Amino acid sequence: MVHFTGDPAREWPETLDVAAMLAGGWRPQPFRQFLLKVHSRCNLACDYCYVYTLADQSWRSRPMAMTPELVATAARRIAEHAHHHGLDYVRIILHGGEPLLAGHDYLGKIVEIVRSETGDHPRVEASVQTNAVLLTEPALRSFAELDVKVGVSLDGNRRANDRNRRYADGRGSYDAVAAALELLMSPAYRALYGGLLCTIDLSNDPLETYEALVAFEPPVIDFLLPHATWDSPPPGRPGDQSEPLYGRWLTKIFDLWYDTADAPVVRIFQEIVQLLLGGASRSEAVGLTPTSLIVIETDGTIEQTDSLKAVGHGAPATGLNLAEHSLDAALRHPGIVARQLGWDALSDTCKGCRFSRVCGAGLYPHRYRAGTGFLNPSVYCADLYWLIEHIRARLVSDLRRSSV
Question: Residues 301-308: contacts with CB within 8 Å, 24+ apart?
Fold first, then answer.
């Protein structure tokens, strides 16, 4: 049962009465993913970066890197949380900024410290998300010794990628990333290859972008909608937000992907197919799966998903820090609770939609509107509806043919 405080001056989910919900029997799910902001600076100046170019500028007042002392505290808190909840595995994600600015040796030490603190149980999976311009063979050798998976950000071919992903002096990053990916694709390091993240830019041709990514043989491709809200709409869209330009961009790729037998996993397509067939999502981008992720900043503050930085200054804040608070304390924060409520976190508009349980109102930060907070459809509502309906139509057509 969801309870509300009834305070009209507060935006949802601050109006959630978490204490009453807990007293009534509701229980949160524990965190399994711990995103460690190991370095708060970056060696690229991407146009769309939610850390540096959007509303939240808290990086300016934070330490450049996590200290060894803070890493040890984080490891203890993660182990404490995992043991308390009897988890069989946890995942640490080394993130930034650009995590490789901390040095690959230091990243390896972080993984070792967390694994040492947790002991033989739970299993600690580790990954690093990088722009790859510092991803060298010595770094990959270090990651191979510790089985640290590597995810890389790339927006397509040279022209597409360098439209936004550039150094501060304007130079493109494509050549450095391509060289790193060639190393990652080699037999010695292929097992570490986590996949590619691509932020959609409507200026880039969708099929050209997809084929450029596929050329690097990723096991998984994640297409990311640019972070936006109802108050800061997506780039390249009319003010009424009704034109599904991003949905159309993605459906062109879906058709090629769907008709290709040996295509890599494209996460958003795979998740939507699974949801349409009655399964559950493993992604917060669609569906109603409760969040299992918490963020730890370089100063030890505990935050919600870092993409909330697109909403406003301080939007990811919980008011908690590792020195004084357990990670269980974050499970009682209204923002975390909201992202674990599933259907009960949807607006009335979303609940009345035929695809409500598939779309799930999209990524949480994209729902924000001043005044109503996060109790809204996604600002990408038209795009998600277009994409889901297109995928549904393809599935229905195939099922009808197979039944004849």
Answer: 302/327, 302/329, 302/330, 304/333, 304/335, 304/336, 304/339, 305/339, 305/364, 305/365, 306/35, 306/37, 306/50, 306/51, 306/95, 307/50, 307/227, 307/363, 307/364, 307/365, 308/56, 308/335, 308/364, 308/365
